[in-house]
Amino acid sequence: MRAYVVTSGRWSPSRNTLDHITLISLTASAAHLRHTHLNPEQRSILAALAGGAQSVAELAALLSLPVSVARILLADLLESGHIITQQRITQTATPDRTLLEAVLAGLQQL
């Protein structure tokens, strides 16, 4: 299906806060919200999220959609209260210098 049909002709999301690794999950009230105004792709996203949080990239791959199209659909679901975003999983502590030096030494020995 053509992307402009799925997105109703829109080429950018209403929110630009969703990157590839943003985690998406259902809101507590998602099951009680109206789904009749959602397109089939948005319903598929909600079904995929029933099993737990997934990243934007994972959802796009699961639905065989370009990430740009998935971001538009997800922004709509975010505005309608069906989904929420969670913290990224990439936030980590600053690496230890000793550990990095040991890794570098190991790589140099290869």
List keywords for this structure.
mainly alpha; elongated; 5 helices; 110 residues; single chain
Summarize the topology:
Blueprint: H1 3-6, E1 23-26, H2 40-49, E2 54-55, H3 56-62, H4 67-79, E3 83-86, H5 97-108
Antiparallel strand pairs: 1-2, 1-3
Helix pairs in contact: 3-4
Organism: Streptomyces roseolilacinus
Protein name: DUF742 domain-containing protein
Pfam family, one: DUF742
> How much of the polypeptide forms β-strand, as a percent range?
5-15%
Morphology: elongated
Rg from alpha-carbon coordinates: 18 Å
Give the terminus-to-terminus CA distance. Answer: 49 Å
Give the proportion of residues in helices: 40-55%
For the record, the count of structural domains works out to 1
The ordered string of helix (H) and strand (E) elements is: HEHEHHEH
User: How many E-type strands?
Assistant: 3
* pLDDT averaged over residues: 80
Low-confidence stretches: none
Strand order of the largest sheet: 2-1-3
Structural class assignment: mainly alpha
How many distinct helices? 5
Summarize the biggest pleated sheet. 3 strands, antiparallel
Textual characterization of the structure:
The protein is 42% helix and 9% strand. The protein has five helices and three strands; from the N terminus they run αβαβααβα. The protein has a three-stranded antiparallel sheet with strand order 2-1-3. The longest helix is centred in the middle third of the chain and has 13 residues, at 67-79. It is elongated and about 60 Å long.
